[in-house]
Amino acid sequence: MSGSEAADAKKLVRSASGLRMVPELRAARSPFGLDEPPWVPDKECPRCMQCDTKFDFITRKHHCRRCGKCFCDKCCSKKVPLPRMCFVDPVRQCAECALISQKETEFYDKQLKVLMNGASFFVTLGTSDKSELMVCRLSNNQRYLVLDGNSHYEIEIVQISTVQILTEGFTPGGGNTRAIGMILQYKVPGSEELTQMKFTASEDYTSNKKLSASWLAAMHKATKLLYESRDQ
C-alpha cells in the first residue's frame, strides 16, 4: 500500500462543541480541514454579537462552532454539518457561518468524489516538450494527488504552492468558459525549488472532456478550501 492510500487511524474526541472523528496523528489530517476556533469567553460577550440583544436568564448565549462568537438563540439556531472540523453530527452555527458551511456541503457530497474518481490528462513536467497521458485523482485520505500512467507521481497536497486553471471560450463581452487544463506548482520534499506540471484535457472523446472539466472545477474549489485552511 502506497503512502497516499495508507489507512489513517482515527479517534473519537469530545469537546465543548460536540463529538469529532479526527486522525490520531495531526500530520494525517485532511489539508482541507479547519481547527476548532477558541470560544469568545462568556464574560466578554454580555450581548449578542449579531443583534445586540442583552443576555439574561431568559435570553441564553450560544457559541457558533465555526467562528466561536457569542449569539442569542435567534441568531444561532441552525445546526449544519461541518465536515471541515470533523464533527460527527450537525452543529450549531450562526447564520453567516451556516451559509458558508452549506455551500461547502456540495464539495464534500459531490466534488470530493469527482476528485477521487479521477480524470485523464496529458501531463507535462517542467519545461519538457513531451507529455504523458495519465489518470489524475485525489487519494482516499485527501492528502495526495496521485498520477498514474507509464510514470507514477504522488504529490502531497500541502506541498502545492499555486494552482492555475486554464480555460477557453472567454470573450471580452462575457460568455461561457470551459476548463481545459491547469498549471500546478509544488515543492518536492527536501527541496525549496518549485516543480511545475501542466495538465491538458484530452480531446479524444466528448465524455472525457466533460469529465475532465468537472474534475478541474472540483480542483478549483479544493484549492480555495486549501488556501483558507492555510490562512486560518
Automatic annotation (TrEMBL):
Chain ranges of the FYVE-type domain: 42-97
Family annotation (Pfam families): FYVE, ZFYVE21_C
Keywords: Metal-binding, Zinc, Zinc-finger
Domain of life: Eukaryota
Gene3D superfamilies xref list: Zinc finger FYVE domain-containing protein 21, C-terminal, Zinc/RING finger domain, C3HC4 (zinc finger)
MF (Gene Ontology): zinc ion binding
InterPro entries (UniProt xref): FYVE-type_Zinc_Finger, ZFYVE21_C, ZFYVE21_C_sf, Znf_FYVE, Znf_FYVE-rel, Znf_FYVE_PHD, Znf_RING/FYVE/PHD
Name of the protein in its database record: Zinc finger FYVE domain-containing protein 21 isoform X2
Species annotation: Aythya fuligula (Tufted duck)
